[in-house]
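chain below, 427 aa
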Amino acid sequence: MNLRDLIDQVRKAGHLVEVNTPTCPDPEMARLVYRYDGRPVLFDNVSGYPGWRVLAGVASTREYFAMALNVPVEGLIHKLVAALEKPVAPPVVQDAPCQEVVESDVDLTRLPILRHFPSDGGPYVTAGILVVNDPDYGRNVSFHRLLRLDERRFAARVVEKRGTDTALSKSMGALPVAICIGNSLPVLLAASMSPPMGVDELAVANALSPVSVVPCHTIPLHVPSDCELVLEGHLTRTSAPEGPFVDLTETMDFVRRGPVIEIDCITHRHDPIYQALLPGKLEHKLLMGMPKEPTILAAVSRVCHCTNVVITPGGASWLHAVVQIEKKGSEDGRAAIQAAFQGHGSLKHVVVVDTDVNPYDPLEVEWAIATRFQADRNLLILTDQPGSSLDPSGVHEPGKKARTAKMGLDATIPWGADRVAFEKVRY
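prediction:
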């Protein structure tokens, strides 16, 4: 299901907010996206950008992902696990919607790139995925925020020693790169997953839902054929200041230098849709956190029977998780805590619950803590652990991994106890 198919689906379901009055991308659109956070918003009349529409919010709830993958919400994690375990190489096509229009006269100021907050460093691409090729591991697809510098250039936030940075370090000069905007939810999910090196994210996307790819016009890369917009260019070894910008934790990230991307060619659909997401809000959180749930589930499943994992929005969809297990032994809760930290290295706090507790409902999780947890028996604290650069309360030193304390709460029914005393009555 491509992006336009999903728009039709959410429109039929009554979720789509359509804005027909003239709306400016700087920063009027962001205010409306914030107002309707949790619902897709389609701007049909973009001030100053004739021929373009702008979409945001289509990845803001698990229900939309379930709709795109044709599974129930509780089945999403198992669908992701299966795709990671058995990726399927996408077929190559020669004729694609994303290349209906080809522009060699590049002017990035003609694209309705949003400025989200007055304090931003400038207009930012937030829903773009970068496609590069690593000479040792093959295609790598990942999210990077992009600050528009001028008519042809972006400054990119590229995290050191990860896929894009590794590929650039192996390049003799500039690295060919394609920026794809207006992607299907399976492609966005796969680009967020960080599978092992050598696993093609677009093959993971194709295992989730059929995806084909098409060769670019000016560079030796393939891109999703049904995306809305492709920017072909090169990731250079020059740098420019990038930031400030709002991060996942809804706090301001500082200015740092980032590599410059130079764009040489633009291709897009007829009547193109520019896709944006509001930094720090539900789309950002889900696309960051949900792809980490399968890795936690896999790690916990190695030590006990894990039935579900939810990375929670209250923990910035990165730092907190709820792990649901079917308890079969007295040490399962503690083992699940330790495994969860192995499954997601940035995890800071985790709560383990039984199968009768809905991990998606924070009230039920809190109830389990209140009625099944004792701090002197069921609390695990780990000090001076590798943490997340996103956590402002951690210890941060330049050039070093962030450090933090970690906490796990075993909120499962005590082993051997009378379950009747701990289970809710059914009304």
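The chain has a mean pLDDT of 94. The chain has twelve helices and 22 strands.
thats it, cya
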